[in-house]
Predict the 3D structure of the following.
Amino acid sequence: MELNEKDYLTISKFDSCNDLLKSVREFYYSKGYGISIRGSRKDKHVILQRDRSGIANKRKKTTASRLIDCPFKIVGKKCSDGPDGDGAWTFNVKDLTHNHEPSTDISGHSSFRQLPSESIKSVKEMTKAGIPPRQIFSSLRQKTPNLPAISRTIYNVKKKIRKENLGNRPMINALFEELEEGGFTYDISHNSEEHISRLFIAHPLSIKLVKAFSNIFVMDCTYKTNKYNMSLLDITGVSCFNTSFYSGFVFLEKEDEENYAWALRAFKEIIGQGDLREVKEKICLAVEHEFNEIKVKLSSEKLQVPHYCNMPFFRELHSHISHFALKEIYRQYDVAKDGIITLCTGHFMTTMGLPCAHKIKYWQGTTFSLDLIHPHRRIDTLSLNVQNDLHGEGIDRFDELLNELHSTYQRWPLNKKEHALSVITKLVNQSVTVFEPKRGITSTTRDPSRFELVESSQSHNKVDDENSLIDLNVYPLDTFDLDGSF
């Protein structure tokens, strides 16, 4: 038999405060009233009121309010644990009157739409995994079809989670603490008013990928997508598998040459060696996912040989270069095998770092040499073991290669020894100016890519020699033996 209000409040006892709250809400929801917490003291008491209690803020003329100062008030109190008490939670009635009629549809009350503790735990887990609120809401509805929550409920829970994670810390202090704890590389710049004007962030796994694949980077800027109206410059690298990975992120107050130059200098440092905090958490998830994808792909492609390349011509390339590179070479191999080849412009070798059909035709009947593949496409020289120290790992690998070079150098013919000495001399004397910003130019328009320069050169000049458009800084003539005899 259903209890009336006075009997329910008089005889009910509960083992915990949570049990009391769950029961009293269900009791009053069934009668068309919403219950909210006015105040509480842990393991002592909890003060309950109607969710329409309180006085509306009349200064906010553009919003509506459900508050009508309902006088209803009861207290949930824990009995003493001594000889005269059993530690149970009971009710203490203060005022049972109210100044409004019960609701015919309780779903309009925000207190009714609160999530149970199990659902809040699921929201926390899915938020940490980077799942957007709309998908979180759909997932909860699939598990509990009659869930009274709406999409705004999820946003409110996420807001509460962020507040709990911050504690009493300002957001920006929490951000820098977490960056340091996570081993991030970051740089910061302030304007004249001491506000943050630039912020560079790089995940430690991003740094490892940047050092492994340091040849190709693409930069793009999103416009004012956070509450600080700062642009986000996204720096993306390209792996030997032709997949992209996040290399770094830069928040910029303005998009001008000075800010871009600062971003490039900050990024150069790692080559040599919502709110911002929420963005940082999403960056962590994205970078860790990308790093693991590339690491697994690197390991698996060292073990696998594509069926279409399982022939003597490709034997020296197996497990040494990426499958993407093998596929591109095989396409050129097919072109060379068909025998119909147009005039060589050098485009393919220059832009891809891989041999074209003309070079492959020259090597037909033999085993293709690994020396003709650009280092960016190699996987045999890479290791993405996160346990290794980045700096020490590079030194150990360098010493290992020097020892291998010293032993093989003794067996080389004289002309190959002379070529090796020439290449090493060029590397030693080469100055690193790749990321230096141009001085005296105020435009932020990007420079044309190498492909665009080659295209422009071809459209304005007649090609008289098939080697004329090859970038000799990348592929010296003595490396490729392009003698026009294809």
